[in-house]
Specification:
Length: 398
């Protein structure tokens, strides 16, 4: 959990500020920003299926440490990139070790959890992501507003990632020989199912929809808030409240996970998130209506920050439920593949959100881009209740 916190802190401390960095340092337009930032996610999703196979085949701790080392080193590349082209290359390549590392770290976490507490344990493990998301953007924005130094942020990310590598080096894993022997017995030849868990494909489709929504929100929140709502200093607070919702949901949903009520957690989380995204998008319209003329600023702020709490609460219920559902669709020695599949699906959605969100914003404005988010989220919710829930109940392995 400590290493995972370091990993995501290094990631999130830069995420909300990179669009500003590209705009201020290189004069990049909205659609170019979307293209540059989407490269990271695209590389991660390309590498993740292979990462699942490697994690399931080779000693997991060795794979974990190699991936973490590469992930940390790439932050130095941001400091060296002096042109938009060089930055694009470094950022795109950086997605590779990030994609592999998240698979390796979460798979090792599952290995060290007792089977009787696995559903609940994965939920609590995810708290490290949420804490990083709560703290990192706020710290990053605070540092930027007081120093206007992106170099300092890149150095901070490098140092924190290196600390995570050191922590992971202390992890003790289980019996690798037993796992590899079992793997050889069940999978004597390579197949597509070794890179993507085909039995869980519909769960993956659902995660693409939700990843799309969060991809648009996390990357264009600061710019949209400033242009549509006139909120210039609330991005850090928004991410903080979103993470508070994530943390509360993990604590609140722990009992349901412990009891194996995965579809309940997933369904309730999706509905809460849908309300949150819709509230966020409606704020500029409702705040400017005649009914709220006298208190438009207060109303807009209340809805803006309230949506953060709801989105965090919903995603916090949904994510561990979907991860556990995907793992339950796999055999015990396909955990790496199951993890990579759910993460690949999220990355596909994130990448599409960043790319399409930037293009739609450039040609139709950020209002249209965020209404697209509401539409895609609603489609994901409908798919789950009409098909995915039954698909999981019929196909789970245990």
């Amino acid at each position: 959990m400590a290493a995972n916190f370091s990993l995501f802190f290094a990631f999130y401390v830069l995420t909300p500020l990179l669009p500003l960095y590209l705009s201020e340092e290189f004069g990049a337009t909205k659609d170019v920003i979307g293209l540059v930032l989407s490269g990271y996610t695209i590389t991660a999703l390309i590498l993740r299926p292979f990462s699942g196979y490697v994690v399931d085949t080779f000693p997991r701790k060795q794979v974990l440490l190699i991936c973490f080392t590469a992930f940390a080193i790439f932050f130095a590349g941001y400091l060296a990139a002096s042109t938009l082209l060089l930055f694009t290359i470094v950022r795109t390549l950086h997605g590779g070790p990030f994609g592999a590392l998240t698979v390796a770290n979460s798979t090792v976490a599952i290995d060290v959890l007792p089977s009787s507490r696995r559903n609940e344990g994965i939920g609590y493990y995810g708290l490290s992501n949420n804490l990083a998301m709560a703290i990192a953007p706020t710290i990053g924005i605070f540092i930027y507003h007081h120093t206007h130094s992106f170099s300092l942020l890149f150095w901070l990310a490098l140092i924190v990632a290196t600390a995570g590598l050191i922590v992971d080096a202390t992890v003790k894993t289980g019996n690798e020989e037993l796992r590899k022997s079992s793997l050889i017995t069940i999978h004597s030849s390579l197949s597509l199912d070794r890179f993507f868990l085909l039995r869980g494909w519909l769960l993956g489709v659902n995660m693409v929809a939700f990843g799309f929504c969060f991809g648009v929100l996390s990357n264009y929140l600061a710019i949209y808030s400033k242009e549509a709502m006139g909120i210039t200093g609330g991005t850090g607070t928004y991410f903080l409240l979103c993470s508070v919702g994530l943390i509360l949901s993990r604590l609140q949903g722990g009992k349901a996970l412990r009891e194996g009520r995965l579809t309940f957690n997933a369904g309730s989380g999706m509905l809460i998130s849908l309300v949150g995204y819709t509230l966020f998008i409606l704020m500029p319209t409702l705040g400017s209506s005649k009914f709220f003329t006298f208190h438009s600023s207060l109303f807009t702020s209340f809805g803006y920050y309230g949506s953060a709490l709801l989105i965090g609460l919903g995603n916090g219920h949904m994510w561990p439920a979907f991860q556990n559902m995907m793992i339950n669709m796999a055999h015990h020695n396909e955990r790496g593949t199951a993890n990579s599949t759910i993460l690949v699906s999220w990355d596909v959605g994130m990448g599409l959100g960043i790319l399409i969100g930037g293009i739609v914003a450039e040609h139709f404005g950020y209002d249209t881009a965020f209404w697209t988010v509401a539409f895609v989220n609603a489609l994901g919710v409908a798919l789950f209740f009409l098909r995915t829930r039954q698909f999981f109940l019929a196909g789970r392995q245990r």
